[in-house]
Amino acid sequence: MDAKQVLEFDTLVVGGGIAGLQSALDLGDQGFQVAVVEKDASIGGKMIRLSKVFPTLDCASCITTPKMAAAAHHEKISLFTYCDLNSLDRQGDAITASVTQRPRYVDADKCIGCRQCEYTCPVYVADDEQGGFSASKAITIPFSNAIPQLAVMDVENCMLCGKCVKACPTDAIDFFQQPEDFVIRAKTAVLATGFELTPVENKQQYGNGNIPNVITSMQMERLLAPHGPYNRVLRPSDGMEPDSIAYIQCAGSRDKSMGISYCSRVCCMYAIKQAMLISGSLPLADIIIYYMDIRAFGKGYEQFYQNAKAMGIEFVKGKVASISQGENGAVTLRYEAQNGEGVTTADHDLVVLSLGMIPGWNPAGICPVSADSDQFIQTIRPKVAPTLTDMEGVFVAGAAAGPKDIVDTITESGAAAMEAAKYLEAVSQSRKAVA
Ligand SMILES: Cc1cc2nc3c(=O)[nH]c(=O)nc-3n(C[C@H](O)[C@H](O)[C@H](O)COP(=O)(O)OP(=O)(O)OC[C@H]3O[C@@H](n4cnc5c(N)ncnc54)[C@H](O)[C@@H]3O)c2cc1C
Ligand code: SF4
Ligand code: SF4
């Protein structure tokens, strides 16, 4: 790709999670040319990292992988992964985005995804894709069903031994690869930049992320996933199968001490889902969900909650005030029970924080689109056209606009694609009228 090359598309989709993929596929199927810019090395977003999905308990990757593959093979969709979006602005008729392709230190035209580099690399690094529970290498393909299947080198940890160079059958390793800047010009854009989890390291009362057997809900997704780090649920400190597992709800939502006053909407349901999956794999374990209110708002969700209770999952109404290291790896919770028992403590083998959602991207200084008071992308007519932003021709889809589940994400992404298609049609009609 030449420096400052300008690439023309009908629509630019920012973010290759399930929202961005759905919008891109809906637009591509209507014949529009779509560019998807994704910051990670693979498309798929959070959904490809989940185990199963509530309320149907379908396998998450069985739904996500076909959409990833469909986008990758779609003749109207171009994927730009491992890219930084530097700016996105409207210039006259066009939306112009400045993008930088970060170096993978692997030639994308030569790499055949054979993983010989990864097998031979002697440097082990914590595998974030597996919640940090297992190790990957300093050069790796991020996960088994990643798209594209291209190796990426972690230059921070590479010790320049050159073993991958010798192992690579296509001579694809390139230590001298440089970032490449290019420009995408499009008539519309869909912002599908998703969410991140609330930062547990900021919550001193919950141990700042330093208590070994206190894990995040996303880490539990990996423990439960078919291609997870251990293929079973173990507690990290000693590999023991936990007999007692606790979920802490609203850990980083509805919590003014963390500056997050809103409900993240999915945490109650994913905690119930995970509890059900754990009780399938560890039928003798006690599973207790500490909650303030259970929010089971979607279709079939209340029944899902009732099913969990019927399975023996215990729900304790009480806000957990603090979490501390107990004896022999146990974790001690201090909470105020709402059943009249007052402040009390309980020990568990493993504790899962049901973390909330914060915006995945801050447009400040990059794009003039407005954010709302919670810093998600502002929607200007939420009751009438919930994907409209205050930038002409720019729409928003999925968790970029606020916390939501997959059903609402997919629905909204279809709506964003439809609004973008309507806009493209209007632009085309007005150009014809001028001509
Ligand atoms: C632990 C957990 C379990 C869950 N389980 C369920 C479940 O069982 N059922 C359910 O319905 N929902 C579940 N959810 C919610 C579900 O994950 C979301 O609804 C869904 O992932 C939202 O998709 P998205 O594409 O909007 O966001 P994301 O999945 O966050 O995707 C956003 C994408 O945009 C990319 N991106 C961000 N910023 C930029 C940028 N500046 N430039 C380029 N790319 C960018 C990101 O890298 C990412 O790939 C769960 C959530 C969590 C945290
Ligand atoms: S050069 Fe770096 S990436 Fe390649 S094998 Fe050696 S340590 Fe691994
Ligand atoms: S860089 Fe070479 S060895 Fe590594 S996956 Fe690509 S082709 Fe295979």
Strand count, sense and closure of the main sheet? 7 strands, mixed
Strand content: 25-35%
Number of helices: 8
Show unreliable segments.
none
Top-tier CATH class of the largest domain: Alpha Beta
**Which second-level CATH architecture of the largest domain applies?**
3-Layer(bba) Sandwich
| CATH homologous superfamily annotation of the largest domain | FAD/NAD(P)-binding domain
Number of strands: 24
The distinct ligands, each listed once, are:
flavin-adenine dinucleotide, iron/sulfur cluster
Radius of gyration: 23 Å
Characterize the overall form.
Answer: globular
Question: What is the name of the CATH topology of the largest domain?
Answer: FAD/NAD(P)-binding domain
Spatial strand sequence of the major β-sheet: 16-22-17-18-19-20-21
Tell me what you see in this structure:
The structure is a single chain. It is built from 8 helices and 24 strands. It has 435 residues and is α/β, with parallel strands linked by helices. The protein folds into 3 domains: 1-101 and 179-194 and 360-435, FAD/NAD(P)-binding domain, CATH 3.50.50.60; 103-177, Alpha-Beta Plaits; 199-357, FAD/NAD(P)-binding domain (3-Layer(bba) Sandwich), CATH 3.50.50. Strands 16-22-17-18-19-20-21 form a 7-stranded mixed beta sheet. Strands 6-3-2-14-24 form a 5-stranded parallel beta sheet. A hairpin with an 8-residue loop joins strand 9 and strand 10. Helix 1 runs parallel beside helix 8 (406-434). The model has no long low-confidence stretch (mean pLDDT 95). Bound molecules: flavin-adenine dinucleotide (FAD) and iron/sulfur cluster (2 copies). The site of one iron/sulfur cluster (SF4) has 14 residues, from helix 3.
